[in-house]
Amino acid sequence: MGLFDRLGRVVRANLNDLVSQAEDPEKILEQAVIDMGEDLVQLRKATAEAIGAQKRTQQQYEQNQSEAAKWHQRAQLALTKGDENLAREALQRKKTAIDAANMLKQQLDQQSSTVDGMRRNLIALEGKISEAKTKKNMYKARLKAAEANKRLQAEVGTMGTGSALAAFERMEERVLSIEAESQAAQELGGMGIEQQFAQLEAGSDVDDELSALKAQMLGGAEPAGALPQASATSVDAPAAGDLAIDAELADLRAELDDIK
Question: Which residues form a coiled coil (predicted)?
Answer without folding.
Answer: 91-188
